[in-house]
Write a structure and sequence with these properties.
161 residues, binds coenzyme A, 4 helices, alpha+beta
């Protein structure tokens, strides 16, 4: 069974290995940029990881890079460990440490696994950004935390004419 904890500097190489476990053919400079982002997140205590038998099998990074709002910016589970609930547990762990009344995340429209995961946890759509990856909009998601969800609009008292 896996466990979730905050990453420390000793975990950096293991987290990097999970990041490199993605599909081949990625641009090396893009990967290097993400490795720096991961190292910064670990140093700041903003990286949560899932471990099993002392191996790191997934991680999540949260920051304030979306208009200063709490943002789940990166979630990755080792390919051989997917569909075991690890991504779900990591997102729930980020929700638990989020200071604030909402948590945003985002993913490409084409990323059905991530969109399904977020939807099952109760995230809802909050707009999208075109022209980051041509033809594949970046979908923004939000979940309201605690009792802070805005009240639904009241039903109209009378039917409109
Ligand atoms: C997206 C990702 C993090 C999901 O992690 P995971 O540990 O496999 O997710 P979970 O096991 O918690 O899945 C939760 C639910 O999400 C949905 N889901 C996850 N992967 C899916 C897939 N490949 N196809 C369809 N639905 C999927 C399912 O509803 C699943 O529940 P179920 O297994 O009971 O049907 C993982 O696929 C991954 O690391 N992908 C590459 C990186 C990435 O795209 N990250 C997201 C953007 S930063």
């Amino acid at each position: 069974m896996f466990a979730v904890a905050t990453a420390t500097d000793q975990d950096r190489d293991g987290v990097w290995a999970v990041e490199r476990d993605g599909p081949g053919g990625q641009d090396e400079s893009e990967i290097l940029g993400r490795l720096v982002l991961i190292a910064d997140a670990i140093a700041d205590g903003r990286c949560l990881l899932a471990t099993e038998d002392e191996a790191i099998i997934g991680f999540a990074i949260h920051d304030r890079s979306l208009f200063g709002q709490p943002f789940l910016s990166l979630l990755r589970v080792r390919a051989s460990d997917r569909r075991r609930g690890i991504g779900t547990e990591l997102v729930q762990a980020v929700m638990a440490v989020t200071a604030g009344d909402r948590l945003f995340s985002s993913t490409n429209a084409s990323n059905h696994p991530m969109r399904m995961l977020l939807g099952r946890l109760g995230f809802t759509a909050s707009g999208f950004i075109e022209n980051l990856d041509p033809g594949d909009p970046e979908m923004i998601y939000i979940i309201w935390l605690g009792a802070s969800a805005p009240a639904p609009l009241p039903a109209p008292m009378e039917a409109p004419d």
